[in-house]
TrEMBL record:
Coiled-coil residue spans: none
Family named by the database record: Belongs to the TAFA family.
Name listed for the protein in its UniProt record: TAFA chemokine like family member 5
Keyword list, A-Z: Membrane, Signal, Transmembrane, Transmembrane helix
The UniProt record lists the keyword rRNA-binding: no
Source species, domain of life: Eukaryota
Residues that span the membrane, as ranges: 6-23
A Pfam family recorded for this sequence: TAFA
InterPro entries per the UniProt record, alphabetical: Chemokine-like_TAFA (IPR020350), TAFA-5 (IPR040329)
Organism: Cyanistes caeruleus (Eurasian blue tit)
Amino acid sequence: MQLLKALWALAGAAICCFLIFVIHSQFLKEGQLAAGTCEIVTLDRDSSQPRRTIARQTARCACKKGQIAGTTRARPACVDARIIKTKQWCEMLPCLEGEGCDLLINKSGWTCTQPGGRIKTTTDELFPDSKDG
């Protein structure tokens, strides 16, 4: 009798797991991102100028309501839309751990300063939704 109950419980658990898998796969079809996540689609680097590398990346994000694509810890991420609209870039924590973030004077972007003094500058041309007008 105990064995029969255990088998029924195991069969029920297996059916539940299968149904969860089927439902999950219906919501996340191939190529879809989970809500609140981003992925890098393209990454181009131009090192043609001495002592300067220009990197451009394109990301695809599936942000939740009230969020917009931004940068957190030097990776694409969904951030509070207010940060982008008000150009308070450093609030989205765009720099790597240990780097310092500073807004550019005209709020057109930010710099990340590494402990050794190397500076990486990012401008809002990468964030076309932030333009006024």
